[in-house]
Amino acid sequence: MYRTLISAAQLQQLDPAALVILDCRFQLADPAYGPTVYEAGHLPGAQYLHLDYHLSGAKNGSNGRHPLPDGQRLAVNFGALGIGPDTQVVAYDDAGGMYAARAWWLLRWLGHEAVAVLDGGFQAWQAVNGEISTEVPEKRSTRFVMRPALEDIVEVEQLAANLGKPGYQLVDARAPDRFAGLNETLDPVGGHIPGARNRFFQLNLQDGQFKPAAALAAEWQALLGDTPADEVVLYCGSGVTACHNKLALEHAGLSGARLYPGSWSEWCSDSERPVATGT
Predict the structure, then answer these.
(1) What is the mean pLDDT of the chain?
(2) Percentage of the chain lying above the pLDDT 70 cut
(3) Which of 224, 101, 211 is nearest to 151 (CA)?
(4) Does the CA dihedral 162-167-198-152 come out positive or negative?
């Protein structure tokens, strides 16, 4: 069972009959990008999942740009893709795992343990001369079994009531300039949640792949100091790249961090919530 990352070479050795591959390629600036590149060529047997339509729920103006989908509906959709209780799932993208990690996290949120992100994504598959297909596979519909969640979340009210308290060390996955309140282009307000530390998700990568577990552990422990991982709350702009930080922590053996799904786009929608700027 692969639970965090899987290499392209390892993926080539798996039995396709016991495997579901999820193509999660996406671009925030071009929502049509993913379906277009999927049609042009994807890993054999891969099913496409769109960040806006499949991996997010309905927006109401105050719950963030990519709110969590309804769990029951998501479970039905996963079952329709052929994900059963013992199915190994592999998610990939072409952006260092930033979108595939969202699918990884959502499956774990519903209690599915056998899910991993393809390290290096589509480019790594090409590098090992993996087969590329343009065929849309038939769906092997089955029953997805929801189990106790492997991932916990923190809701906005809970977070607001516990800012600065033990057990709620925030880590923001956005780029340093956006964390500081500069060059904000996606949300109406710049800055970060008070008390947060910054860990740009791309720092988890080296040459497009995740750094070794030991290196990630050392970097994260330097950031967190004496704070254990299970007292960490992860967020980003809309609950997507925070999942990348969660994947890095799990790969590094630092388990227990929780996700604030609404993230900055939800937090800043209420002018009464405090905002910090600078580093």
Answers:
(1) 96
(2) 100
(3) 101
(4) negative
Cβ atoms of residues 201 and 98 within 8 Å: yes
pLDDT of residue 139: 81
Closest CA relative to residue 63, chosen from 275, 270, 278, 273:
270
Residue 176 is classified by DSSP as H
CA dist 259 and 196 (Å) reads: 13
Q: How many residues are there in the chain?
A: 279
Q: What is the pLDDT of residues 188-234, one digit of tens each?
A: 999 999 999 999 999 999 999 999 999 999 999 999 999 999 999 99
Residue with tokens 């923190």: 154
- Distance, in Å, from the CA atom of 56 to the CA atom of 241, rounded to the nearest integer, reads 13
**Structure tokens given for 170:** 């925030």
Q: Do the strands 209-210 and 205-206 form a parallel or antiparallel pair, or are they unpaired?
A: antiparallel
- Span 139-148, mean pLDDT? 93
Annotation says 236 is catalytic: yes
Confidence class for position 279, pLDDT limits 50, 70, 90: confident
Closest by alpha carbon to 154, among 258, 270, 70?
258
Token code pair at residue 90:
């592999």
